[in-house]
Fold this protein.
Amino acid sequence: MRTPLVMGNWKLNGTKDSVTALVNGLIEPAKAATGVQTAICPPVVFLGQVEALVGDAPIAYGAQDASVNTSGAFTGENSPVMLKEFGCTYSLVGHSERRQYHNETDEVVAAKFKAIQENGLVPVLCIGETLEENEAGKTEAVVETQLKAVIDLCGVEAFENAVIAYEPVWAIGTGKSATSEQAQAVHAHIRGWLASQNASVAEKVQILYGGSVKAATAKELFSQADIDGALVGGASLLADEFGAIIAAA
Ligand code: PEP
């Protein structure tokens, strides 16, 4: 059995005050949800504050991106070594907003995945198709290509210690979630495709769904056989709403 994981992606949001209120508001829901892993990905400037607020509460945290480099003349970057020092467990990698606005190719994403993992963090690889690709019937081919770039560099065994987040780009921040049946079909395809390379890795890897997840839709999504939790954007900024999603898992 795979443990459900509910992860919040705060994107470029937060103030010192809102971070304090949000983390404090998540401690009870996270404690109450035994058997569910809770995680948050704040902007890196808040990591020290999050580390102090979380204390020994069962809330893991991570970054939304990481540099492929560990140190040096790379202005504006955040090293996976630094993220580890701040207590991060995870780093997202290849979020569609990074692919779209920062031109991150599958090769760049794979190199970052490798750097994140080599420095002791769990990469959360975000994959998913655009609306155009979806309408052209290319969803399966797109997610395979995105996964293959990582497998070519790191091997399929790298997914022993990684998380996959399937996030159809057309569902992110649009209020238009994939139906649980649509999401399950893609998750099953991803797991089956991985299983054709390594059955035990495929069985173990957590595959999260992301794209306009709300408390009202979470239970139905989590009831699907291959949906092991969620990566939540907008709704993760509201303690009550995110708490209800954690409870649904
Ligand atoms: C995300 O940013 O990963 C995401 C899924 O956002 P939202 O839940 O707002 O669609």
Q: What stands out?
A: The chain has one domain: 5-248. Residues 5-248 form a domain with the TIM Barrel fold (CATH 3.20.20.70).
